[in-house]
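Section 3.1 - Work completed
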Amino acid sequence: MNSGGDGICVRRILNVSDLPNWYKSEGYKDLMSFIRQLNDFAKGVHNGLCDESSIKETSLQRVRDLLCELSKLADQIEPIKGDTGQRFGNKAFRTWYDGMKTKAISLLQANYSEKDQAELRPYLLESFGNQQRIDYGTGHELCFVIFMLGLYKLELIKEGDTKERMKSVSIEILTLFAVKYMPLVRKIQTRYQLEPAGSHGVYSLDDFQFLAFLFGSSQLVAHPLLEPKSFPDSKIAEEYAPKYMFFAAIHFIHQVKKGPFHEHSNQLWNISGVENWSKINRGLLKMYTDEVLHKFPVVQHLVFGPQILKWNPTT
């Protein structure tokens, strides 16, 4: 990800020695606060986060419509048959990516100032994988969350808004993430055989995602019926996938991986032995901070600007 030649957004985390300044930056504090807020507002939402008609905010409806268009585009662009015989990386993804870029830039140009576009664009375009490497990982998932943070800061929340307003907006963002973003990236991962970016297995939770497990475990806190020990069961995962983000993620694993669950998803198998969802959620938040936000290979690509992700490290 680069500044796009606009001179506003620039990379700051150029080597490992820049990480301490990243942790002290305003951008890091804002991002952590946003992820914690989404996680907190997902807690115990047993009957929500699965109905796209509940997305009422105009800017989120625009993104919802874009994600629908991108899903249709994936239906139209067929994988290349006999693509060099590789297991991963169908080059048709590059064609899809070009189409995605055109549609995403059109959305931004129609609705945002040049200044806002300059900061939103790199994050939106990096939300779906890398065009050249034909891969996808937690860094791309993070870019979508930072894009959401951008909309949150630039349009959705104004100074003085109530906690109830912040909660309703957060739940709409979580719903968009669960019902539109996640199904789209799963579709392109399988259709174009994207390589998992970075270390294979993304810390052994899933080959590609992390936040679906974090926010999904929060959604299940204090659920009257569903216990952690139930989620490795493929039939239970399939039954509850339409309603719960966590079970949708597990169901996807069952669709793409064969063999015993404890072998292909050992870390998740271990998590299923934890006594309650609240404890799982706390552990996953710590793991996400340590294994994603604190890892140089992931955060080196972030760009910083004057509004969304600010650098200016504090003492």
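Second construct:
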Amino acid sequence: MKLWQDILGTEEVGSYVGGEVLLGQGDEVELVDPTTEVRLAAYPDGGSQAVREAVAAAEEGGRAWRAMTASQRGRILWGIGQAVRDRLDELASLESRTVGKPLRDAVAETTKVAEMFEYYAGWADKQHGEVIPVPTSHLAYTLREPYGVVAQMTPWNAPIFTAGWQIAPALAAGNSVVLKPSELTPMTSALLAKLGEEAGLPVGAVNVIAGLGPTAGQELVTHDGVEKVVFVGSPATGRRIAAAAGEQLKPCVLELGGKSANIVFDDADLARAVGGAAAAIFSGAGQSCVAGSRLLVQRGVYAEVVGRLAELAGRIRQGAPWEEETQVGPVQNARQLDQIISMVDGARERSAEVVAGGDRLDRAGYFYPPTVVAGVGNDADIAQQEVFGPVVVAIPFEDESEAIALANDTSFGLAGAVWTSSVDRAHRVARQIRAGTVWVNSYKTINVMAPFGGFGDSGFGRSSGLDGLLEYSQAKAVWVETDPEAPLAFGY
């Protein structure tokens, strides 16, 4: 926790509002080290009061932010990226400790945060309107205008990554932000806001709430000063947020869960496909919305692929995130571990075959081994519901048409992959998979330059890329009459 004190000047954990640490007054929230199950810190829930103060700070900070030229804003966004790079190792270390992911993974994700701010820095002065050749004597043109104060809620599996993922485009479009990360992982997001101010961001342009969903989250969604809501998390919570925002006609972006199909055809490079399947589901202890949690394998190579994957799963090294040899760390929290155990045990009771893993490790920490489940159909609960852990379900298929049907036989539509040596098949199948992202002969490559989002229960709207930037502004049409003698128009 030294970094928190070094940057914010206090040992006490709280919300970061208007350039200061704001201590809450609500119920105590305990932060636990997922590797040791030892208490790291605790803080009082910021609740609705913190949100009200944060929105007020965001309104003031937003006015100062929008008063700058677009070029000035771009330079500051670039500076935030550099500030993240300057504190990269420290930020990644804290992220690793609080989330439980291997340090090298935390370093990679924190580096991507710097890339996000650098990418959107380039967009800050390139959001052009258009002149429209209307069939009248008017000069008609469009402007892109920010919403104002944007509410953002991010999850515990990748807090600093998802904070940068949303904050950078919101700022590039001219908005100010009130971010509520998961109550289990608030620290790196707050530090990111402080580093932004050190890089020149006006105080209050980004505020971070340390608080619970039913108190702080509820207030944030329904606050009159919030103009748009962005949520990254579970479909169940996403539905509640969309309903609450809808009552006030607030637009939303929802980036929700997935049950992504990783399709392996019999002509694929099986060694690469098995390695890719392992990385797709076991990295990050499977705590990824795009995890390749359904492995669809053509029947002729099904036994070989499942056998190879099970053998590989058994060799993956689990351990403390700071140990160099660790490939997979613990699950982030006890509640999620219980969910994983319940779903695998439930599948086993329904005659599923657990060919690798399947039981919590007998050691301190929330460790669950890489697990391969076979012998179930695509209609099984474990094949339809998001486990959000290192658990993959292997399902055979006969031909291309069945593979596509199985891939799309889910309420989710976030991601998927195709492994094949046939170029035409790769494009053909990728087009027919109902998902926001499809990889061919790879998995889980994500970059800020490309749009990201899903269909169905995976949510709507897009993050990252130009599409993500456009989510944070609205088009305004301006009509300027150039002919003083032109007749006035009546009607619509």
